[in-house]
């Protein structure tokens, strides 16, 4: 009952934006919280799934962990391309809903389904084609290349399902529905645990308490099982996400009314205008991350595994920032779609300050809990100590990292993606990689993470400077 009342309150406040009615500061804060909390939970559950994968595989030894860590940055590259494709269409939908044009929003959704499915299928074919050679290109040890190749191949084969999951969740969030994507991502996390347990490990007896043992069947596939388990969880979640979007969504239900799924040039052009800079930025950013992997690889298997584990553990800290950024995209997008630039700027300030506050708290938690986080992920002492060191360095960067994450979400909601993308590229290539290349030979993995910490602080500062100006609101809003 309380949940239904909260949904009603949130929808009522969103209507105030769309209908041009004034909003008090209390209403703005309440709406920001209502949209942010489910989005934060969705991001945390997604991250928890990666954490579960890493900890389960970590129990198999440093070699198994390193095989996934070696290709992890490459999986992020393909993951980010799918995210950019979905965003190119979902921002249009946010603007159209804000302007009250629901039929136009549904038309964009139909075109998005066709376009993104074809795009992700092409990406899947490319990924499977290069999977055999990728571990060698990245400089991985011969002992981990086979597992790394197989993991990457299965991951890329599941990209169409991942793309539909991203598209469905992004569309629902931009319409103001944060609860369903959040719940389904939690379900995906639960399914991932179940599938991984059955596929990674061989059949074994699990003692729940003294005198009570349960026999668990298992395929004993190791790293391959981790990839298959995650892929199956994504397929189930994507199916449910798209079903709700197409059949149950209040604003975007398209199943009961016919319409063309054929992409139109005008819609594709707008999607490219928004998504292409994001995709190119992500490709170059992941290229930089892959180069970081190349810098780390000569430091040894322990360093590769520790770097991968620390990145996964840190994501528990910064993913709440991405949840707030999702809320910022929705609020700013709908405000600008309704022609309310002043309100958009207010929501930009509120969401950025919220993100900084949340991630500052999470940074403190990460610094204190670093030993526990690494103990859960790996039994190898050398890997644990390196991971703890990395996490405690990175904790100091979280406030400014939050500023860059949420500000970027604000700019995406405005359709302003080109300049922020260039800012990201300059920051990571000119600052992080340069420092990492200089510091790694003498300081090892510590130098790589120190470079990352400095770069994230620099990035947050330049994003706050841009947010203070007005140029990001001058981007042409998608016409209805």
Beta-strand percentage range: under 5%
Give the termini distance in whole angstroms: 36 Å
Largest sheet: number of strands, sense, barrel closure: 2 strands, antiparallel
How many domains? The number is 1
Number of helices: 16
Strand order of the largest sheet: 1-2
Overall number of strands: 2
Helix content: over 70%
Can you walk me through this structure?
This protein is mainly alpha-helical and 480 residues long. The chain has one domain. The protein is built from 16 helices and 2 strands. It has helices at residues 2-18, 25-58, 62-98, 102-130, 134-137, 142-157, 159-174, 179-200, 223-247, 265-296, 301-337, 341-377, 381-394, 398-413, 418-443, 445-468, and strands at 202-209, 212-219. It has a two-stranded antiparallel sheet with strand order 1-2. Strand 1 and strand 2 (212-219) form a beta hairpin. The two termini are 36 Å apart.
Secondary structure layout:
Layout: H1 2-18, H2 25-58, H3 62-98, H4 102-130, H5 134-137, H6 142-157, H7 159-174, H8 179-200, E1 202-209, E2 212-219, H9 223-247, H10 265-296, H11 301-337, H12 341-377, H13 381-394, H14 398-413, H15 418-443, H16 445-468
Antiparallel strand pairs: 1-2
Outline:
The chain is mainly alpha-helical and 480 residues long. The chain has one domain (2-469). Helices cover 80% and strands 3% of the residues.
């Amino acid at each position: 009952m309380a949940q239904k009342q909260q949904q009603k309150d949130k929808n009522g406040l969103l209507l105030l934006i769309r209908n041009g009615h004034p909003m008090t500061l209390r209403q703005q804060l309440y709406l920001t919280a209502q949209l942010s909390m489910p989005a934060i939970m969705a991001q945390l559950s997604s991250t928890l799934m990666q954490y579960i994968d890493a900890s389960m595989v970590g129990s198999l030894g440093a070699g198994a962990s390193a095989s996934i860590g070696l290709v992890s940055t490459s999986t992020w590259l393909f993951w980010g391309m799918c995210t950019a494709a979905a965003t190119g269409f979902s921002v249009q939908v946010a603007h159209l809903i804000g302007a009250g044009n629901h039929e136009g929003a549904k038309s964009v959704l139909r075109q998005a389904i066709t376009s993104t499915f074809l795009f992700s299928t092409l990406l899947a074919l490319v990924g499977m084609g290069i999977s055999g050679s990728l571990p060698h290109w990245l400089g991985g040890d011969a002992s981990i290349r086979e597992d790394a190749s197989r993991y990457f191949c299965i991951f890329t084969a599941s990209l169409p399902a991942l793309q539909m999951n991203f598209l469905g969740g992004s569309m629902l969030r931009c319409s103001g529905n944060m609860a369903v994507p959040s719940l389904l991502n939690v379900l995906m996390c639960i399914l991932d645990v179940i599938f991984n347990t059955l596929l990674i490990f061989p059949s074994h007896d699990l003692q729940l308490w003294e005198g009570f043992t349960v026999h668990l069947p298992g395929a004993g596939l190791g790293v391959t099982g981790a990839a298959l388990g995650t892929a199956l969880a994504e397929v189930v979640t994507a199916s449910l996400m798209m079903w709700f979007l197409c059949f149950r969504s209040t604003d975007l239900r398209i199943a009961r009314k016919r319409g063309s799924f054929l992409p139109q040039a005008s819609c594709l052009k707008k999607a490219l205008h928004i998504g292409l800079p994001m995709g190119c930025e992500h490709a170059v950013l992941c290229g930089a991350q892959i180069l970081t992997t190349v810098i780390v690889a000569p430091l040894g298997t322990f360093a590769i595994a520790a770097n991968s584990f620390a990145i996964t553990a840190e994501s528990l800290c910064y993913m709440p920032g991405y949840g707030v950024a999702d809320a910022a995209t929705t609020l700013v997008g709908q405000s600008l779609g309704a022609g309310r630039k002043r309100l958009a700027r207010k929501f930009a300030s509120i969401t950025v300050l919220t993100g900084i506050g949340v991630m500052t708290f999470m940074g403190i938690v990460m610094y204190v809990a670093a030993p526990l986080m690494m103990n859960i992920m790996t039994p190898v002492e050398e890997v644990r100590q390196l991971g703890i060191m990395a996490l405690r360095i990175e904790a100091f960067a979280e406030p400014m990292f939050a500023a860059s994450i949420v500000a970027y979400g604000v700019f995406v909601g405005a359709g302003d993606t080109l300049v922020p993308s260039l800012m990201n590229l300059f920051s990571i290539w000119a600052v992080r990689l340069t420092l990492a290349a200089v510091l790694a030979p003498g300081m090892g993995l510590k130098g790589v993470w120190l470079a990352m910490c400095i770069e994230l602080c620099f990035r947050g500062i330049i994003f706050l400077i841009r947010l203070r100006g007005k140029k990001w609101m001058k981007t042409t809003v998608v016409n209805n």
